[in-house]
Structures are given as C-alpha cells and as structure tokens.
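User: My collaborator sent over this chain with a note saying "see what the structure looks like." That's all I know about it. Can you take a look?
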Amino acid sequence: MLPDEYRTIDFFTEDALPVPRVAPAEAELIAAEHLGITARAQSLGSQQDANFLLHADDEMPAAILKIANPAFSTVEIEAQDAAADLIASARPELRIATVLRRPDGSPRRATVDTEAGPAVARLLRYLPGGALSGPRHLSPTTVAAMGTIAGNVSTALRDFRHPGLDRVLQWDPRHADRVVAKLAGHIDEHDRRTAVQAATSEAWAHVQKLAAALPSQAVHLDLTDDNLIRRPDTRPPMPDGVIDFGDVTTSWAVGELAVTLSSLLHHDGVEPHHVLPAVRAFHAVRPLSPEEAEALWPLVVLRASVLVASGRQQAAVDEDNAYAKAALDREWRIFEQATWLPLPVMIRLVRGVTGMADDEPARTGQADTPVRPLLRDLPAGDITLLDLSTDADSMDHGAWMDAGTEDRLAAAALADGAAAAATRYARARLTRTPALSAVSTATVPTGIDLWLGRDAVVQAPAAGRVLAAAPGRVDLTYGAQALSLSFPRAIQPVVSTGAAVQAGEDIVQLGSGASLHVALRDADGPAAPRLVRPEYAAGWLALTADPAPLLGLPVDADLTRERNLLDRRDAAFATVQEHYYADPPHIERGWRHHLLSTDGRSYLDIVNNVTPLGHAHPRVEQAVSRQLRRLNTNSRFHYASVVEFTERLAGLLPEPLDTVFLVNSGSEAVDLGMRLAIGASGQHDVVALREAYHGWTYASDAVSTSLQDNPNALATRPSWVHTVDSPNSYRGRHRGTDAGRYGPEAVGVINELAASGRPAGAFIAETYYGNAGGVALPDDYLAQVYAAVRRHGGLAVADEVQVGYGRLGHWFWGFEQQRVIPDIVCVAKAMGNGHPLGAVITSKSVADRYRDQGYFFSSTGGSPVSSVVGLTVLDTLCDEDLQGNAVRVGGHLKRRLETLADRYGIIGAVHGSGLYLGLELVRDRTDLEPATEETAELCDRMLDLGVIVQPTGDHLNILKIKPPLCIDIAAADFFVDMLDLALTQLGHGHTW
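Assistant: Without extra context I'll predict from the sequence alone. Here is the result:
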C-alpha cells in the first residue's frame, strides 16, 4: 500500500523510526531501475533514513540516494525538496543538496518497496568538501559562518508555505517536553535520566513564558555540523553547503539557531562561550527579538535533552544502527556543555552579544542605600580597599604568584590601623591567576571579601526575612535581592531561618581577625560562585550587584572602562600600526615570561625578544628609577654612564670594532649602519637578501624585502638596492646540501655590479635568518659574500637586531656562527629590555668618515637613562647566565618540538638555535606548500590555551619562537604541550 500523500508524521503515534534496511546492492538496483542511474552504492550513516553515496564508473561521486523512512509521506518529501530549491534560488552563494531532475524537469524521485513498507527514494545533489562533524575544534570564523548560514536559511524560508510542513517531529522544540517524557526511560543511568528530566523541566518552563511571542515559520531544523558542508580546500574549514532537509517543518524560528549551537558543543575544546560568534552572526543576518534572545539558550538545553533521550531510544530499537550508537557519547557531551552554567547566565551572555543586555558588557548595578550600615560602628573611612587587579602596584615583582598575597596585603592594612580591609566587586583578581593554564581561571569576584581588624557586629541593613541561617552563613532578603553573608564556620549567627528582621537587628557577631564575604544577587536567580571566569563574568555579574554601599564604600564606577578601548585605539592610533589578533586580550602587565591581561589571564609569552631579561625586571626598573631621580639629558653633556656603556659594548666585539653610535631602535641602527658604509666606501649601491626585514626608515625599508611587511617590496626597491636569493636551505631554490650554491651566486651578483661600474658600497644581511624563522645561513656564506663586497671597496653590515645578545645560545653574536667579522654591526631590541635603545658598532676609521657627511646626534640615543639601562641589561645577562639558559632551555625545547614533528605531518621543519627557533608548517613535506591559514588558526587556538605566539616568514607559515631568555623548562614544556593539544584539536593528527 502506497503512503497517503497527504498524511504527515506524528512522532507520538509512532513506536519507533528505525532506518530502512537496504543493502548497497539493493540501493544500486533502486537507483538503476527507478531513478535512471547506474552506480556503485556506498552506505552512509543516518538517524532515520537510508542514505547512499553513488559512485559513477570513474569512481567519482555522482549523487546521493536518499531512501526516506517509510513513516514519511510523499507530501513531506515534496516539502523538503521545495524548501531546498527555494533556498538555492534565494541564496545562490550557498550550495544546496537539491533534488536532481530528469530532462523533462521532473524530480528523480520514486516510491519503492522496503522491508518496512513503501518509501520515497530520490537522488540529491552531492556536495563535495565534507561535513564539519567530528571532534575537530572549530575556530571562531567557522562558528560565525555557521551562524550566518543559519540566518540566511531562516530568512529564505520565512514566507515558505507547504502542506508537507504540518508535521509533529521529535526534533521540533515545541514538543521537547513531551519527547523527553516519552523517551527518558531509555536513559538507563539514573543520574543521567534525572539530570535530563530536571534540565528539560526548567528550560521548558522558561520557554513557555515566552512562547506566545516567539514567531513561527518554516525551518530546516537540522543545520548542524553534520549537515553543513565545508567549501572544498578551505582552511580553516568554512561551510557553504547545506544537506539533509529531512526535518523541515514549521516551528519557532529561533529554534533554527538553537539546533546549530547545540551541534557545536561536542567539539574539542569548545565551551558555551565559544558558540557566541554564531549568535552574533545569525543576529546580524536575521535579527533576534528580545523574546527570542531570551529563549535561545533554554532551547539549546531542550535540544540537548532531546538528543540524549532520542539517541538512547534509537540505539535500543535499531540495534544495527552504528551511526546512532556512535553518537551517544557526543550527545551526552552536548548536554553537559549546554547545562554547565545556569540558564540565566547564558541568557545574559546571549543578550550581550546581540546588544540587548542592560549595561553591557558588565553590569554596574549596586545595592540600594541601606537604612543601616551592614557593619555597626565601623565607618567606611576605616576600611582600606585592596586593589588586587592587574593595574595594582601591589602586584609588582611577581607578587600575584604568591599564594598568600591577599592575606599579606590585608594584614599590612590592618597593621597600619585600618579597622577592616576589603576587596572590590567585579574587578578581576590577579592573585587568583596561575602562571600557566590551558583555560582561564575564576578571577572575577561577584561579591566583596573583608578581613576584620577589630570586633564587629553584622546587622540587618534593612527590614527583611532570613532565607537561611547556619554556622558560617546567613542569607536574607534585601528588597528584591538576596544578601549572602559568609564567615568562619565556627561562628553561629544570632538569627534563625525564616525569622523576620528589622533594620539594625543583629545578624552575627564577628571577632577581630575574622573574615566576611558579602554578596548580593537577584532573589530569584542562582547563587553565584565567589569568583567566576572572565568569559562568563558578564552573565554572572548581570545577576548580582555591588554590595559596597552596604558598607558605606564607593561603587567602582569604572567597570566598563575597557569596552571601547580598541575602538579608541583605531580612532587615534594609525591603523597601519597593527595589533596582534582580531580580538586581542587587554595586556597591562608582564612578569618574566608571562603577560597578564586585565581580566586576570596569564599568557606565556613566546614572541618577545624585546625583553631578554623578562618583563618588569626589578634591576632595570630600579636602575631607571634611580637615574631618572638624578639626570636624563642628551649625550652632548658629559656624564659617566654613556662612557661606561659604550666601553662595555665595544668590548663584546672583536677588533677592529671599537667605536659605538647609540640610537633608539633597530630601524635607526640599520639606517645609520648603511649611511656609514656608503659614506666610508663612497659607493652608493647596496646588496641585500630577499625575504629580509630591516626596519621602517627610508633606508632600512629600502633594503627590506619581506613580502609580508611589504607585498610590493621587490617591485618598489630604489635603483640603488640590489637583491640576491634568500639563502634558505629549507625552502629556497637550493635546498639541503645544495644550499652551498647560494654563496657563489651572491658573489656573482656582486662581481657583476662592480663590472657594470656600480660596485656595492654595502652588503647587509641578518647573520642568522631571523625573519625567515630562524634559519641558519649556509656554512661559509657570509665569508664568501663579505670577501666579495670588500674586494670591490664595499663594507659588510651585520644586522644583529633580532638574533644578537646571546639569544642563539652557543654564540653571543650571530656572525660568530659564520666565523666572520663584519665591518659594521647593528644592534637593538634586546639592548634595552623594552627600553628604546639601539647601537651601531664599527671601527674608528669607518666612524670618522661620517664627518664627511656632517655630524651625528640623537636626542635620547645614549641618554643617561638609556646608558644605565644598557649597562644593567649586560650585567643581568651575565649574572643570570641567560645565554647559558638559551642553550639549556632552548635545546630542550627544540628536542621536544622535533619529537612533535614525528607525530604531525604539518610540521615541516624545526629551525633555529638557542631561543631563536622557528616551527615551519607545511601542507606537504615534498612540495613544501606553506600552511599559512593553518598557522593563523593555530596561533588563535594557542591564545585560547594561554600562549601568545605569532607567525613569521614570507608565507606567514612559521611560528616564531623567541621568548624572553629567562624562560624555564616548565614554561617550555607547557608551550609544547599546548602546541600538541592544539594540533590535535585542529585535526592535524589526521587527514580531513
């Protein structure tokens, strides 16, 4: 009997919907006899339909054969195909799995017999590229793209009408409560079944309050990672295809987005906050109403509950369905993530990213003025506020790392005469930050902590009712809010649960030395943890209020000061001066090899060769402070520090390099170095390496040929600059042992210039190829080139800006590795440990020739402060054996990276020496295709895991690894461990 074409599915009248049992051979027969295609059938997984990929004679995919569950009628299938055609027409940028058609335009669709009865079979367009399913971590751009597609599908289907949409599906969120009630018995584990039922009850109650205001329309209702297809060869994977219209129906429009969000929650490393880019993207295409924003996360929870219950039921009734069984763990992971935070917290976060939250991104709500102060006879003027934020002076010198810092600071305040010491509401506490952590930690306080220096009575600030009273804790009403008081468990409050209290009535008596935690929250909201993670702070703080007024303390009115900081930067600071990351952390403190954000996150710094001693080194700070108290002027004045510093610096170089110029940066140093070479040689042409960066001044930029710093670098060089091949032994023209050919070829260019009457006055190169990712120059390369340029009257200029000062470990200067002595050495970066300081060192004879061009003067180059900084850096490099640390830690780090290369094919090479390393990422180890996009995605994922690392090289496919030289083994191991984790999460341990 053929299915009634006007009948539609009612899930609640069906016992089960097992997948039709169709063998590949039967599928091939159906395709040939009914649909006009001869092909090999490959079975694909499905929850309720039978799907096959059909391969043509050449084994190329030809189409998808979909045999619908017999429970679905022809009119429902027609609705699905019509919806697909509509979206394909409305959104041509999307690839849609539409039904294939015969020459006469009719769909390739037929009713066929199966063991379970007549079923509709049809051919659908095959979309190459693969789904986004699997455990792979999805980047914010991919997540946002999924939200955009959901928004576009929703707008395309808004006015779609069809009788086949009138269905009762188990996936329709309008029936979620009934579905869970019907199927929950299939969840065998009591604790899981109870959790699903409780979550469903809470979420359903919330949605029902809003249901009347939620618009309904036609929806795809299955825009998941399984059904969104990546555009072929996109990296990171970007979806542009939509398949599987089997759940098309009429339902709440916002359910479209809820389905997409839920499908993200099982991916490696994905937490609820990671799905918010999809919400933002959907909202930009198809704006959510306030009611929809309020209902969205409860619908995610309902979807998760239905997935768990339905998955267990399907696995039970369809024992041979490997697809359904394989999904069980994934579905439970989705449920755990969906219910990890209280609904009101996630609702506030959703409202925040849609611009609907009150006082976004962090609520600055405060307690009403109390009738009586919370602490009797303890005036606010006697309370010292403790600043535990990233900006606090008390966090200097790594104090944030000490476990007892909060108690120590409180004790010091009490010793100075304060009656109490109090923390601040909502300001991230750096004291709760671990130095190395793959996830952010709870640093944002939802209340205030006090340390008492004398006896105090806690009294009711207004009339109210005691909600709970027990040793160590009292909760009472305060207007529409709940006031929570926590104190040592040994202390018994003087009120009891349920009692009415009047303003000024005693609550608890606390002795000197006791602690008190005070928190205010919405009376009908969840109890907030004392500290919450920054990513979720806006959601939690929206449910709480600053209790400072209860203590007579001022409210922190500056909580939203960071909201528009990046916009202000872009408005006033030339945007060509780019910043790391699209959504950068706000960094305001550094310590050793750590960088610290204002939300209390510690990041391992893997890129900062500007601070070889480490951030905020006390010796540098003290030296600068001492000198600023005495004198800071220009180097035309006579003072000792400039003499002592230049003597020390010249003493680090071989003869005849004995004369020093001091400037402020590497760009200035290179610029001056070339002017010295040209002036001394009288020859104006310069030879430089390709793929090099030397600075931003006119002259240093002229010899910078890095295509990433200037895509037109080679085409826009002035006529006096001549380039030779990058002597890159890994990916250059000559590789491996053939790299020895670079030297003679460069010599040939220098000789040809001389023969043409334009001998080079200078040859400039990094002595260790820093910009290319720490690639060592071929043996004897500089010896050959230096000899050639000198034969024709030119000078050799060594750019040591990045690699000098002991970073290479085995050599203090990069030119030592090449066993050469330059005529001019340019230095910067490491010299000042973050203070602007650069130098050019040359021979007295070359320096004296500069007078032919006039005189040289730098206002702050060689100032007393700069000279003292330079001396302090040299002293500390020696005293702390940081060059030796580069050998030890750098060697350990390189060995561990090489071990990773054995496991991940994307790692092409590990370059470098000491603590100047480069990890080159390639798509193929044979043709060395650069993995540029993968490298960018990896850097973003590493940031999420607590590591700041950036790409370098002309293809931006090399991780530049040049941390402060004080980095230790633990931090090096953390970096490699996070790199290992990120590579696995991003799918590089296998092929997509």
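A starting point for your reply to your collaborator: The chain has a mean pLDDT of 94.
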